[in-house]
Write a structure and sequence with these properties.
The chain is α+β, with helices and mostly antiparallel strands and 163 residues long. The protein has a domain at 49-148: OB fold (Dihydrolipoamide Acetyltransferase, E2P). The protein has helices spanning 14-32, 90-96, and strands at residues 52-63, 71-78, 81-89, 105-114, 120-129, 135-137. Strands 1-2-3-5-4 form a five-stranded mixed barrel. Strand 1 (52-63) and strand 2 form a beta hairpin. The longest helix is centred in the first third of the chain and has 19 residues, at 14-32. The N and C termini lie far apart (77 Å).
């Protein structure tokens, strides 16, 4: 008769299984936020090319965190509707020299989405400040954030070349 006392359910032991699960809990959130700065947000992190819109409006509030990074956003009044426009990491926008102030006229191209509470957001891919004439590209044609792409030096193109 076959003896089962040497048969182990987990050949490497419970300690190894626990360590593997702990590592998954540490690294999965990092990979989930690799597209941008969304971890812990109430929004879906995906940039949907099917929901891209162009809006033109007036900035009613601008939020650019000074310390510790964080995402920059602004409120835009356009066509009797209020939009919260998510721009990107504050460090990236600072590096690009972006200046946006309350009262500036902006043209924004981005993906329109709703958060879990039904609030309207636009994740910006391209913005143009009509007051200063400054424009900045934040995402490529596939919606991928430029701050996450290797070989990019600025928001204008590869290695700083004009597009």
């Amino acid at each position: 008769m076959y003896q089962m006392k040497n048969l182990r359910v987990f050949p490497f032991g419970f300690r190894t299984l626990f360590l593997a699960l702990a590592l998954c809990l540490v690294f999965l959130p990092a990979t989930a936020s690799a597209q941008g700065w969304w971890w812990g947000s109430t929004m879906d992190s995906g940039y949907d090319l099917k929901t891209v819109i162009d809006i033109k409006g007036i900035v009613t509030d601008a939020r650019f965190p000074e310390q510790g990074g964080g995402s920059a956003s602004l409120s835009l009044r356009a066509d009797n509707e209020q939009y919260t426009v998510i721009l990107g990491p504050a460090w990236y926008l600072k590096k690009q020299g972006l200046r946006v102030e309350k009262g500036d006229g902006l043209r924004v191209t981005g993906s329109r989405m709703l958060d879990r509470q039904g609030m309207v957001y636009v994740v910006a891919a391209n913005i143009a400040n009509e007051k200063t004439g400054q424009g900045i590209l934040l995402r490529d044609e596939d919606g991928r954030p430029l701050w996450r792409q290797k070989g990019r030096r600025d928001g204008r193109g590869r290695q700083g070349e004009q597009q």
